[in-house]
Structures are given as structure tokens and as C-alpha cells.
Amino acid sequence: xxxxxxxxxxxxxxxxxxxxxxxxxxxxxxxxxxxxxxxxxxxxxxxxxxxxxxxxxxxxxxxxxxxxxxxxxxxxxxxxxxxxxxxxxxxxxxxxxxxxxxxxxxxxxxxxxxxxxxxxxxxxxxxxxxxxxxxxxxxxxxxxxxxxxxxxxxxxxxxxxxxxxxxxxxxxxxxxxxxxxxxxxxxxxxxxxxxxxxxxxxxxxxxxxxxxxxxxxxxxxxxxxxxxxxxxxxxxxxxxxxxxxxxxxxxxxxxxxxxxxxxxxxxxxxxxxxxxxxxxxxxxxxxxxxxxxxxxxxxxxxxxxxxxxxxxxxxxxxxxxxxxxxxxxxxxxxxxxxxxxxxxxxxxxxxxxxxxxxxxxxxxxxxxxxxxxxxxxxxxxxxxxxxxxxxxxxxxxx
Length: 398
Prior knowledge:
By secondary structure, the protein is mainly β. The two termini are about 35 Å apart. It contains one helix and 27 strands. A hairpin with a 2-residue loop joins strand 21 (about 295-305) and strand 22 (about 310-320).
């Protein structure tokens, strides 16, 4: 089967609806005794509006006819990626060492597919001389794109021209969010700081030797604000009033080193100039989640809705070391970019496409936000709570 849909006829209801997710399933497979490979189908039930990523692993069989890794087949721990407009079936190749009639093993999903729904999660793979061997899937799968700035350079973050103020302005960043300096609705425990409002604190935003530092912290002296006592300091630069940071179509590209402190929540994200949502999360780091690995995980998401109400969201948390060979986001500087076109939004890390989604926000304009939120009640003193931005560029397209 081949996907033949660009979703051009789908009614996105002015950025409030998304097409249905595709369901990913593994299918049972057979191979001939004496062959050196078994092909196991991985299938989508419909054309996908966004990248779907599945992690699969082989598991030894059971019972009298069990096949064992290292003796009968070679272990496979692989990533399967479907991009929009890809064929709907691909196969995972499992090397066979030697299997006799009736021996079987399994291929399993390691977790629910990223970007899709889970169908059949286990496939039984059986050696059989009576059944036709499962064939290798055919079809052309698109290679990941490489990031290229195709728009006109509209803005570049430079120390000489950088300006900020509590609420921002046409030529400067705001050190607050559109809804203020706190986000208790998200469970955040950090107060978004500005040294002109809260003198004597450690600088929440400053230029260091490697770039612009967004510094999060546990406050040495708690701050009373909005009828509550705050023990942590968060930091943000928000472009809601900064005209040069706003585009409809084009590319945003950050070069940054991420924090690795447990409880930090760094992000690069875009919000509609007409209000939230829509939202496009270019990078998000869920340091308050125990599973999160700052050096191997990235998250990309779109949020649809209107009038401060989110109706749906779609995205992925990717273990990029296995999926794309990319890692070390808190160890060194890496590039995080998004390309917004009329048909698709495409995300990139270090120039490699990591995710793509149909664009439900046609005709909208966006402004960028870069921040390190805090969501913890811990000592908040492990690792680094700083995000350092070495470069930030915005390219506008017609």
C-alpha cells in the first residue's frame, strides 16, 4: 500500500483540528528453514499526517519450538520511521543463523509508537516450509531532509543589539510570558525573574563567554509575588511584542546547550500572535520526568485550539541517539530548527530531520519563546540549570 494524501482537503478549522492518527501494527511472519533472513511487516492503517516512529526488539520464542537469540537468529533492536507520504508497509529484517521447521520467536514494540496509535504490538515469526515466506516490502521511503534556510534572514541574536525589558517592546524581548510571571496551572514552581524587578538576585539572563545564558535557580532568599512565596527562579525571553522575531512562514534556528538539572524544563517554542493556542514546540526538555535523559531525548509538539483552550496536541518524544545517532545536548552545542511551510512543519536537530507534521496553522503568524521553567520541590542543585544560546536566527519566507 502507498500513502497518497497530502491532507490538502482536510478542514483544519482554522488551526483547531488535526487529522486522525495512524495506527501502527506488527504482523506475523514466516521464513523458510535454511534461509538467512526473516522479514517482519510493520504497517500503518492509513496515511499519516505526521512522522510515526516505532522502536522494535526481538524476543526469544517459547515452548518446545522456541528460537533463541545468538543460536537461531540475531537480536534486532531497531527504529522504524514512517514519514508523511511514505508507503504504509515496511519490513524489519531479522538475520537468521539457523532455524528448523516450526521454530519461532517474536518481534515486539518496546513502547507505544511515537506519533501514532498502537495496534498489534507483537508479531510471531515462524520457520515454515509449508507457508510462503513473508516478502520484503517494496516501495520508496523518503530520506530525512537536511535543514536549509530558504527564507530571508530577518533576525539574528547579537550581543551588540540585544535588548530586553519586563514586558518587551517592538525592538526587544520580554522577560515575562503573555499571562505573567507564573504558570501554576502547569505545575511550575519557578517565578520568571527580571533583575530590574527583583534586584539582588542571580542574573536570570546574561551574556557569558559562550553566549546568552538563561539561568534557572533555587533562590537564596524566597520571593513573595502574587500572594505566594516562590523558592525557585525561572527565566524566559518572549517575543510577543518584538516585531522582528515574528514570521508566518520560514525557519527558526537555535544553536544551544541544554541544562541537565533534574526539575528544569527548557524549551524553544512558538505561539500565535493572535493568542494561545496555536503553539509549536521546537524543542522541549521534560527534566521533571524521571525517564528524561537530557543528552538523548528531544520532544517536538503542535498544540491546536483557540481562545486559550487546547483541543488537541500531536508530537513525539524521541530517543534521538537510537533513532538518528544524535546525542549530547547538555554536553555541547547543538542546532534545533523548525521549517514552517504551508503544507508541512518540519523539525531538525543538527541539520537532520527528526519530525514532520502537516501544518494546521495556515495563515497564522508566530513569535518565539525561549525559556527554562522550573517544576520541582527538590534541592535543585544537581548538574546545570542553565541553557546557553550561542546563535539564534530567523528566516522569513513569502
